[in-house]
Amino acid sequence: MAAGSTYTPLANTTLASTQTEVNFTSISQIYTDLVLVVAGSTTSATSLFMRVGNGSVDTASNYSVTRLYGSGSAASSDNLTSQDVMYISTGNFTTANTIVNLQNYSNTTTYKTMIYRLNMPAAFVGANVNLWRSTSAINTIKVYVTSSTLTVGSTFTLYGIAAA
Amino acid sequence: MANTYTLIEAKTLASAVASVTFSSIPQTYTDIKCVFSVRTDRSSFGSYCFVSFNGSSSNFSARFIGGDGSSAASGTQSQLAGIETDANATANTFNNTELYVPNYISTTNAKSYSVDSVSENNGSTAFDYLVAGLWNPATQAAITSLGITAEAGANFVSGSTFYLYGISNS
Asked: What ipTM does the predicted assembly reach?
């Protein structure tokens, strides 16, 4: 990963109160890739979800994921097709972090792939890949939970990486 | 354009040592990332190396998933910072590891960290490990120092490198 001025913070949120979602909108289209770093906790064991889109997030079943993960006792891999969300953690997001790399996010000719590293010391470690089956550029990202809340102090930072 | 990915300190070993410490880490960044490439004098192919924060080796836990060239496995290992390349590996090969700690200056939250670590060998014994780690002391504290220690009894050899970067969210 290149050092210096190509790694630019685009937006960040530190929760001052519990929330169920964080949104990044009107994302600049001048970079090559995006990196999203989430660090924090939820108030109870739950998966962390993400949707992306252009103008608004896509809620249709256009996502899929292939997962490689370890529980601390077993290594596993699986895949989920035609999902209406992306999973950026799997269970028990407690004092955890996830680092999502969204490659070539602003192009309008290819589907978008995203590699993410999930780090949940109390549950799982893994490296997964999500696919969003759309040729639209990504300018909106939503990170959220459905059955819990994100705790105070959780941080969400979006960086832009320029190839030149 | 802001310079948000900043080298804090670089260390290249001129002689063998058992551990390396970055001390007095500035508290002006959001995240820190330690990138190291090491080889040890231990009679093995690859062994664990370990991380410490603020001089402490207590209150750590970690889960890993890894492959050794023949199978994949998952387990737990306190303080795990990756797989060092040891003396039995092909000469002149060093490992590569990235250890990322988000929100390291928090005085209220426990610290989770992420590790990607590889030790390639052009042989049947090589390693690729992913680690999710946690430091959760009874009293939470900002991280002001970060240490990397070789497996017990081993030393990082001359030529091993360690870089600490600061990453700012604004």
From this structure: 0.87
Comparing C-alpha atoms, which of B137, B135, B160 is closest to residue B150?
B160
* Residue range A7-161 in CATH 2.60.120: yes
Distance from CA of B6 to the nearest CA of A (A): 6
DSSP state of A28: -
Name the residue among B74, B116, B131 with its Cβ closest to that of A73. B74
Residue B40 DSSP symbol: B
Instruction: For the full predicted model, state whether its pTM sits above 0.90.
Output: yes
- Domain assignments of chain A as residue spans, ordered by start: 7-161
Q: What fold is seen in the domain B5-167? A: Jelly Rolls (2.60.120)
Whole-angstrom Cα distance, residue B41 to residue B36?
16
Q: B102, A73: Cβ pair inside 8 Å?
A: no
DSSP sequence for A74-115: -EEEEEEEEESSEES--S--SSEEEEEEETTTT-SSS-EEEE
Residues of A with CB under 8 A from a CB of B: 1-9, 12, 37, 39-41, 68-76, 95-97, 99, 117-127, 153, 155, 157, 159
Q: For A93-116, what is each residue's pLDDT tens digit? A: 788 999 999 999 999 999 999 999
- A95/B136 CB distance under 8 A: yes
Which residues are CB-neighbours of A114 under 8 A, at least 6 positions away?
Answer: A86, A100, A101, A102, A103, A129, A130, A131, A132
The single residue listed with the structure tokens 């040891």 is B86
A2: number of Cβ within 10 Å: 10
Q: How far apart are the first and last CA of chain B?
A: 11
* CA–CA distance, B56 with B46 (Å, rounded to integer): 24
The pLDDT tens digits for B21-52 are 999 999 999 999 999 999 999 999 999 999 99
Helix intervals (H) in B100-164: none
